[in-house]
């Protein structure tokens, strides 16, 4: 699909690199496609039910794309903008840049309705001020979830702490909830200023059965996949540089499933409040598994395999494999996400054949 605007290439894939693309299902049919341009703009386009671009894309100032989610009135895009570090001084080392994370609310034509910063920099608080929460180069990606009214952003964050006459910069994660009118919902008990530390692969899902936003992280605090705020171990890992948290989905029964990888092998874990009660050793040789709801009672795990992706369907209740592994003819990105659609399909925005095109991989319900 031709976009007419250059898309940031896959380049080096990591939680410190820019994310090129994200897709979200429109309840009325079709999708919203967001992509990071090469001109410090984040673009947003509407796709029809054949995954073709409709009309002219809109764009917003942004240096990194994080995620996009949709509802019947439009949706929200999560992106990063340039911020200010101020003068410090740092106690040692370097930790720039000091950027900000923003939710942008858009209507069904793609035009901005409101924006809300979910970090806390301002004209009186820069990145090197005590108490600052900002986005830097290290482990900073985020995801969105919605309860149908409010939106929640869960992302990696830099943490500035005064240490005598200077400041130290630490790293963790942050979850903030924003109302339909664009205001921070400070009363939401699922939100937190800092959860896991040090943390990466922030994952979030809304659970309508319990009325809560549920989050998991990968953390070097005891080297595990964990629920934050307070810490509750989901799966024990090791800090050997291969611990990776995949995606998080609802179980078709109670609880949740998360995919993760250690030592280049992917696992599925089922949990409810904390410790996993079911482990599925998938046999998939991958460091970066994706997981997405696939209809009401199944889930789909996907991983990179050469120039394509491999996929396996699992029962979302028992965790048992359904059918055989199959191939998806699209290029994988370690940190991008598959998204579930109301018709039971799942879709992924992948690199196209040129720098101004995108390929939508869609797995239809069977």
Taking the alpha carbons of the first and last residues, their distance comes to 25 Å
Q: How many distinct domains?
A: 1
What value does the Rg take, in angstroms? Answer: 19 Å
Q: Which range does the strand content fall in? A: over 45%
The overall pLDDT, averaged over residues, is 96
The chain-level structural class is mainly beta
At the third CATH level, what is the topology name? Neuraminidase
How would the global form be characterised?
globular
Summarize the main sheet: 4 strands, antiparallel
CATH architecture label = 6 Propeller
Low-confidence stretches: none
Task: Name the helix and strand elements from N-terminus to C-terminus, one letter apiece.
Answer: EEEEEEEEEEEEEEEEEEEEEEEEEEE
The oligomeric state is: single chain
Helix count from the secondary structure assignment: 0
CATH class call: Mainly Beta
Main-sheet strand order equals 1-2-3-4
- Total beta strands: 27
Q: Secondary structure elements and their pairing?
A:
Elements: E1 21-25, E2 31-36, E3 41-47, E4 53-61, E5 64-71, E6 74-81, E7 100-107, E8 112-117, E9 133-134, E10 142-146, E11 151-163, E12 166-178, E13 199-207, E14 212-219, E15 224-227, E16 232-236, E17 244-250, E18 256-262, E19 265-271, E20 278-285, E21 290-293, E22 298-305, E23 308-315, E24 321-328, E25 339-340, E26 346-351, E27 358-363
Antiparallel strand pairs: 1-2, 2-3, 3-4, 5-6, 6-7, 7-8, 9-11, 10-11, 11-12, 13-14, 14-15, 15-16, 17-18, 18-19, 19-20, 21-22, 22-23, 23-24, 25-26, 26-27
